[in-house]
Design brief:
Rossmann fold; ABC transporter transmembrane region fold; 4-stranded antiparallel beta sheet; 588 residues; disordered N terminus; alpha/beta; 19 helices; 6-stranded mixed beta sheet
Length: 588
C-alpha cells in the first residue's frame, strides 16, 4: 500500500473565510435558521429537569397534597415540546436549502474556473480525478453547514446548559462532567488522527480508481476496437484491491478507537452514578437528581461524542474542500483578461517572429518567423513530429510560455484578450469533439449570438456536406448524437466540426488535418465547399494530403521546428526542394 497522504496546507481560518464567502448571498437566512435552532435546543433542556422534579415531588407526595406543581411542569413541557419540534424542523428546512444552494454555487464557481485554467494544467490532470475533487469539495461545504445546524449548536447548548444546571445542584458533579467532556474529546481527537489519515488514503485511492474507470468508459470505442478491455479491467481490479486494503485499514482504526472511547465513557458514568446513589442514601441529594443526572449525562456524552465524531467528518470535509480550493487557486494566465486589449477587427497581418517553444528539455520550434497577411491562405506541411501541431496550438494561444512573439498588427498575442481573439477565430481540430446534444446544438454552440439563425445553420450544414447524412438521422438536425458523437462516423464528426467553423463566421480559420477522417469523395466535396469559405477568411491549414493545400497562396514546410521551404505549390514544385521530396514520397 502506498504512503498515506500528507495534510494539505489549508487552515481552519481559510476554510471559515471561504465558507463565509460562499454564504454571502444567504447569510441572514442562515443566521435566522441558526438562532431558531439555538432557541429550540435551549428549550429542550427543560424536559429532563422537569422529569427529575416530578420524581422528587412524587417521592414526597402525600394524599391530599396539591398536584398543581405537576400540572405546571407538564404544561410547560407540552409547550416546550411543540416549540422544539416545529422550530427544529423549520430551522433545518431553511439551513438545508441554503446548504444545497451553496454546494451548487461552489460547484459552478469551480467548474467555471476549470474552463479558464491554462490547458497545460488540464493536460497534467486526470479528468475523472478533477470531477471527483469538485464533487467531494462542494459536498464537504454542504456537510459542514449541515454539521453546524444539526450537531454543533445542539452539542454546545447541551454542554453549557447541562454544566450550568448541574452546578446549581452540586458543583463537584458539574466539574466532574467538564473533566469527563475534556478528557473524552482529547482522547477522541488523538485516536482519530491516524484514522483520518487512513480515510484520506481511501479518498485518494477512490479518486484514482474513478479516474481510471472514467477514462476507460470515455474511450470505450478505442477500448473495444483494440481489445484493451481485459487489460484495463485487470488494472481497475488491481487498483480496487489496493483500495480495499486501505478501506480495511480505515475500518480497523475507526472501530478500535470507538471501542476504547465507549468503554472509558461507561466506566466514568457508572462511577458518578455510584457517587450520586451514595449521596441520596446519605440524604445529601434528592432522588430526582438520579433521573436528571442519568439523562443529562447521556445527552452530554452523546454531544461530546457527536463533536468528536463530527471533528472527524470536519477534517475529512476540510481535506475535500482544500483539494477543491486548490483548483480555484490554480493561476489563470492566458484566460486572464486584466489589462489586455481587444482583438483588432480591422487587422492586416499576423507576424510570427523568432518563435521558439520547448516541451521540457525538448525543443520543438526553433526561431520560427513568417507573416500571414489578411485574406491569405497559408498551408503548413511536414512529417510527423516536425512541430506543425505545436505551432497550431501557439496560434490558438493555448500556451504563452514561448520565446519570440506572435504579433497582430504589432500587438503581442499575449496582450490580446483570448476571448476577444477566439470570438473572431474558428478552429477545426484533428479530432472533432462532439457533445451529447442535438446535431443542431453541436453546430450552433460555436456562435451563440446567432444560434437561432436557421438560414446560417442551413448554409453551414450544406457547406460541410452534413446534409448528405442528415436524412438518415431519425429526427434530422434535432437528433441527439450520443456521448462523444457515438451515433456519427469519424468523417461525419469531422463534417460537424467544419460546419461549426462555417457557422461561426470567423475572420481567421485554423484547420488542423481538417479532412483527415474523410474518404476521397467526401474530401473532394468539402474541398469545393472550403474553397468558398476561404474567399472570406484568412486560413491557416495544417495538412498531410496534397488536395488540402494545393490551392493555398503559400505553403510552409516545417522540419525540426524550422521553416525549410516557403512558396506556393507551383513554385515549390519547380524548386525541387524539401516540399518536392515530400511530395514524391507522399509523406504529407
Amino acid at each position: 500500500m502506498s504512503a498515506l497522504p500528507k495534510t494539505i496546507d489549508y487552515s481552519n481560518r481559510e476554510l471559515l473565510l471561504d465558507i463565509w464567502r460562499w454564504l454571502k448571498p444567504y447569510r441572514w437566512q442562515y443566521l435566522w435558521a441558526s438562532l431558531l435552532r439555538l432557541s429550540t435546543d435551549v428549550i429542550w433542556l427543560y424536559p429532563s429537569y422537569a422529569l427529575g422534579s416530578i420524581v422528587t415531588f412524587l417521592g414526597s407526595y402525600q394524599p391530599g397534597d396539591s398536584y398543581q406543581p405537576i400540572v405546571n411542569l407538564m404544561t410547560i413541557w407540552i409547550v416546550a415540546s411543540v416549540y422544539y419540534y416545529v422550530g427544529r424542523q423549520l430551522a433545518k428546512y431553511a439551513a438545508y436549502r441554503i446548504g444545497e444552494r451553496v454546494e451548487l454555487d461552489a460547484t459552478l464557481e469551480t467548474v467555471g474556473h476549470l474552463f479558464k485554467i491554462d490547458l497545460a494544467w488540464h493536460e497534467r490532470e486526470n479528468s475523472g480525478n478533477k470531477v471527483k475533487r469538485i464533487q467531494r469539495g462542494a459536498n464537504g461545504i454542504h456537510t459542514m453547514l449541515d454539521m453546524w445546524i444539526d450537531n454543533a449548536i445542539e452539542a454546545t447548548v447541551n454542554f453549557v446548559g447541562i454544566v450550568i444546571i448541574l452546578a446549581t445542584i452540586d458543583t463537584w458533579i458539574s466539574v466532574a462532567l467538564v473533566v469527563f467532556a475534556g478528557c473524552y474529546y482529547v482522547a477522541s481527537v488523538l485516536l482519530a488522527r491516524r484514522a483520518v489519515l487512513a480515510a484520506d488514503a481511501v479518498n485518494v485511492g477512490d479518486e484514482g480508481v474513478s479516474g481510471l474507470i472514467y477514462e476507460s468508459i470515455n474511450n470505450i470505442r478505442t477500448v473495444k476496437a483494440l481489445g484493451f478491455s481485459d487489460t484495463l479491467f485487470g488494472r481497475i481490479r488491481d487498483e480496487m484491491r489496493i483500495l480495499f486494503v486501505r478501506i480495511t485499514e480505515r475500518i480497523t482504526r475507526f472501530r478500535s478507537r470507538q471501542a476504547i472511547l465507549d468503554g472509558g465513557g461507561q466506566l466514568f458514568r457508572l462511577g458518578l452514578l455510584i457517587y450520586i446513589l451514595a449521596g441520596i442514601l446519605k440524604g445529601q441529594y434528592e432522588v430526582g437528581l438520579l433521573v436528571i443526572f442519568w439523562d443529562y449525562f447521556g445527552r452530554l456524552w452523546r454531544s461530546v461524542n457527536e463533536i468528536a465524531e463530527q471533528s472527524q467528518r470536519f477534517l475529512l470535509a476540510r481535506y475535500a474542500v482544500a483539494r477543491m480550493v486548490a483548483i480555484l487557486k490554480e493561476p489563470v494566465t492566458i484566460e486572464d483578461e486584466t489589462g489586455k486589449v481587444s482583438f483588432p477587427r480591422d487587422w492586416q497581418q499576423i507576424e510570427v517572429k523568432n518563435l521558439s517553444f520547448s516541451y521540457g528539455a525538448e525543443r520543438v520550434l526553433n526561431r520560427l518567423s513568417f507573416t500571414i497577411r489578411r485574406g491569405e491562405r497559408l498551408g503548413i506541411v511536414g512529417v510527423s513530429g516536425a512541430g506543425k501541431s505545436t505551432l497550431f496550438k501557439l496560434l490558438l494561444n493555448e500556451h504563452e510560455d514561448y520565446s519570440g512573439e506572435i504579433l497582430v498588427d504589432g500587438l503581442p498575442l499575449r496582450s490580446i484578450a483570448r476571448g476577444s481573439y477566439l470570438a473572431q477565430t474558428a478552429v477545426v481540430l484533428q479530432e472533432t469533439e462532439i457533445f451529447n446534444f442535438s446535431l443542431r446544438d453541436n453546430v450552433s454552440i460555436a456562435n451563440q449570438r446567432r444560434a437561432r439563425d436557421t438560414k446560417l445553420l442551413r448554409q453551414a450544414l450544406e457547406v460541410a456536406h452534413v446534409t448528405d447524412f442528415l436524412p438518415r438521422l431519425p429526427k434530422g438536425d434535432t437528433t441527439l448524437v450520443g456521448e462523444k458523437g457515438v451515433k456519427l462516423s469519424g468523417g461525419e464528426k469531422q463534417r460537424v466540426g467544419i460546419a461549426r467553423a462555417v457557422f461561426k463566421e470567423p475572420q481567421l480559420l485554423l484547420l488542423d488535418e481538417a479532412t483527415s477522417h474523410l474518404d476521397i469523395e467526401s474530401e473532394e466535396k468539402i474541398q469545393d465547399s472550403l474553397h468558398q469559405v476561404f474567399q472570406s477568411v484568412t486560413a491557416v491549414v495544417i495538412a498531410h494530403r496534397l488536395t488540402t493545400i494545393r490551392e493555398m497562396d503559400r505553403i510552409l514546410v516545417i522540419e525540426d521546428g524550422q521553416i525549410v521551404d516557403d512558396g506556393n505549390f507551383a513554385h515549390l514544385m519547380r524548386r525541387r526542394g524539401r516540399f518536392h521530396e515530400l511530395w514524391e514520397k507522399q509523406k504529407f
